[in-house]
Specification:
The complex is a heterodimer of chains A (110) and B (215). With 110 residues, chain A is an all-alpha fold. In chain A, 84% of the residues lie in helices and 0% in strands. Chain B is an alpha/beta fold and 215 residues long. In chain B, strands 3-2-1-4-5 form a five-stranded parallel sheet. In chain B, α5 packs across α6 and α6 runs parallel beside α7. Chain B starts with a helix and ends with a helix. The chains are: A mainly alpha (110), B alpha/beta (215).
């Protein structure tokens, strides 16, 4: 029941967003595909940052334990703000790449 | 590096990230909207064996900043007291050390058990361990000289397989008394996401324990 409710809600708002985009804002269909690919790119780089953040955090804690003999729990880095920060980091890096590509492309044009 | 080389490298990187993102999205959808996490959680669970034992061992699950028991520690304490009330063992041992200057898990759970009318001479606390494996070693040191070998082990069901292995490794005969939190059977997408996180943490813990030679 919960799954149906959530899926129905997301389907409804996505369809509404599409209608607003096409009807009210006059956005074109081909660019929707590019926008979805861009969203996937943001998601991919954010996932990368999340994995790196967690691996580096865990490695730092384990090395600290070995070096000092002081116990520090791994749960120290088990915090949802790491995920949020990873998303922000991902947005910055992905946008930086895109803007750089556009800048280089503009410079190459006669 | 010329701008052209840098641009094509960045473009390849962006394309690669889009595939990673697609994979992440598919994983997210399968975790939240299918029973995959529930199936994985069930594969980690251990059936309960509620038989008489030499001792009931309750593993700590955290203490809050103010000194109160976390939800995990509280439900484990209550379960241990209930098992004692059924006459399954003569003593209950609460296990868990202290972090950041807080009261130890073992001491906090033992205090709660006494408040729940568990007789003081039936309560023991181990207060030095920092994880499941060190708890198993500490309890072997504490209980084996008393002739205590067969234990009813109380912990959350996702944690039980690893805990059981760690205690068997140090020579205990373990009867599992797992606690099902209800999360394992939940259909709510958010709950499945949280359950998957716990499953992955537990799997990572097993790999780490195997590498350290603790199970």
């Amino acid at each position: 029941m919960e799954v149906i409710a959530v899926v129905s809600l997301i389907t409804l708002t996505s369809a509404s967003g599409y209608l607003v985009g096409r009807g009210f804002l006059g956005l074109s269909n081909p660019l929707l595909g590019a926008a979805i690919r861009q969203m996937l790119g943001y998601l991919g780089v954010s996932l990368g940052f999340a994995v790196v953040n967690l691996l580096i955090g865990a490695a730092a804690i384990l090395m600290f334990r070995e070096a000092t003999g002081t116990f520090v729990p791994l749960y120290l880095i088990d915090d949802n703000t790491v995920i949020v920060a990873s998303v922000l980091q991902g947005i910055v890096l992905f946008s930086w790449c895109q803007l750089s590509i556009r800048g280089d492309t503009a410079r190459e044009e006669p | 590096m010329t701008p052209r080389n840098g641009t094509s490298r960045a473009q390849s990187f962006l394309k690669f990230l889009q595939y990673v993102g697609l994979g992440a999205l598919l994983v997210f959808l399968s975790v939240t909207f299918t029973p995959l996490p529930n199936v994985l959680a069930r594969s980690l669970s251990v059936p309960a064996r509620l038989e008489t034992a030499d001792a009931i061992v309750v593993l700590g699950g955290g203490v809050e900043r103010g000194g109160g028991l976390s939800a995990a520690s509280l439900r484990r304490t209550v379960h241990g007291v209930r098992l004692f009330g059924k006459g399954l063992a003569p003593i209950v041992v609460f296990s868990g050390g202290a972090f950041w200057g807080r009261i130890s898990e073992g001491a906090a759970m033992a205090a709660m058990a006494r408040e729940l009318r568990l007789p003081s001479d039936a309560v023991l606390a181990e207060t030095e361990s920092t994880n499941t494996a060190s708890g198993a070693r500490a309890l072997a040191h504490l209980l084996h000289p008393r002739g205590t070998r067969k234990i009813l082990l109380v912990s959350d069901s996702l944690h039980m397989q690893r805990a059981e292995a760690a205690f068997r490794y140090v020579g205990f005969e373990v009867l599992a008394a797992p606690i099902r939190t209800g999360l394992e059977a939940s259909n709510k997408p958010e709950a499945r996401l949280f359950l998957m996180r716990q499953v992955l943490q537990e799997l990572a813990g097993r790999v780490y324990y195997r590498l350290r030679g603790w199970i």
